[in-house]
Specification:
380 residues, Ribosomal Protein S5, domain 2, Alpha-Beta Plaits, 4-stranded antiparallel sheet, 11 helices, 39% helix
Length: 380
């Protein structure tokens, strides 16, 4: 889908872009809120992608960014080295700052930069639209960087500049995704392993949007950091909350008060579930893997308190209908849920639709998602 970005660039700036790249959104199968706690995650890249077309502006405007998106078709002009704008363009400016610091922006380092963006990834739906944007822009501006380097640039743009206290999962799967595979990614060691995944997976969009640059995510991360500080009394060498031994959960519970106790129990338990889940997928044990999805959602709902009534309605309806597994995906507080079903399942979709209509008076969009490839440059 590079044409919309190319056409928008040409229509806006009157020239053809120098390069175009695309990057996918993602669905996290399991491992929720473990990434910024140094634990494992198991995401897949999805077919929906963000495209970024880039090129130089006119001489004499070095340090200026001109950007436009099909979301609002409003041209924004900022001096990216001096100011960080609000909204989606902040991610683009953050990428520029990171590439400039790495001396990887040539031949645009001393020229104005023009960017046009077109995306299929819905914003605020828990599908990593911001990571897809950052990775696509980084790949278009610096196509020679490796996927790992692109992921690092995109992560620092979002974390250090925009101020989202995220982990590195979203940017990594967007850059390293592989068709028909999930990625078991250890966020502390950065070890990555592709795991075969071609099961039937439904994505149910609640329509409730969230902004992760403020609110729940940053608060939860602060709570986890506070838990680590307190647990260092028990285990001085502890660096990541996810590194706390699962067999020491009783000791953890005694050491922490609420809400830190619940947050930490979720992270330690979810860490074990993610690693076990990868083993189950390798063994083809989808039924047991689905049970882990239900366990993960209940932990997110009860211990991490990041679910929502809409997400709980979907998961409960899926379970009653006999789906193999279901849970929220993409941090929570709205967004989407995933539902794992057998190839012959014909009951789950209507059951979810009926339950959601009764509760909220509308039908949620439901689509099938497949594991897709990661970021790449596109032909002009």
């Amino acid at each position: 889908m590079p044409r919309p970005a190319i056409d928008l660039f040409h229509k806006t700036f009157g020239t053809i872009p120098r390069s175009v790249a695309s990057a996918p959104g993602r669905v996290n199968l399991i491992g929720e809120h473990t990434d910024y706690n140094g634990g494992p995650v198991l995401p897949i890249a999805i077919a929906q992608r963000t495209n970024a077309a880039v090129g130089p502006g006119q001489d004499g405007d070095a340090g200026v960014l001109e950007a436009i998106s099909t979301r609002d078709n409003t041209l924004v002009r900022v001096k990216w080295q001096e100011e960080l704008p609000l909204g989606w363009i902040a991610y683009v400016a953050g990428v520029l700052r990171e590439l400039w610091a790495l001396d990887a922006l040539a031949p645009l380092a001393d020229r104005p930069v023009r960017v046009a963006v077109a995306s299929e990834v819905p914003v605020g739906a828990g599908l990593a639209s911001s990571a897809a944007l950052s990775v696509a822009v980084a790949k278009a501006l610096a196509p020679a960087l490796t996927p790992r380097q692109i992921a690092g640039v995109a992560f620092r743009a979002e974390h250090d500049h925009v101020g989202v206290r995220c982990g590195v999962m979203d940017q990594t799967i967007s850059a390293l995704g592989k068709k028909d595979h999930a990625l078991l990614f250890e966020c502390a060691s950065l070890d990555a392993k592709h795991i075969p995944f071609s099961a039937r997976l439904l994505l149910v969009d609640t329509g409730v949007r969230h902004d992760l640059s403020a609110g729940g995510l940053n608060q939860r991360r602060a709570e986890c950091e506070d838990a680590v500080k307190r647990l260092k009394v028990e285990l001085p060498e502890l660096a990541w909350l996810a590194s706390w031994p699962a067999e020491w959960l009783p000791r953890l519970k005694r050491a922490l008060r609420e809400p830190l106790r619940s947050r930490a129990v979720h992270v330690v338990s979810e860490t074990a579930r993610a690693r076990f889940g990868a083993q189950l997928l390798e063994q083809g044990k989808l039924k047991r893997f689905g049970q882990l999805l239900y366990e993960s959602h209940e932990s997110c709902r009860r211990l991490y308190e990041c679910s929502s009534p809409e997400l709980d309605t979907i998961v409960s309806a899926a379970k009653r209908a006999g789906a193999l597994g279901a849970r929220l995906t993409g941090a929570g507080w709205g967004g989407a849920a995933i539902v794992l079903v057998s190839t012959r399942d014909s009951k789950t979709i209507p059951a979810i639709q009926q339950a959601y209509e009764r509760a909220y008076g509308k039908t949620p969009p439901i689509s099938e998602v497949k594991a897709s490839g990661g970021a790449h440059t596109e032909r002009l």
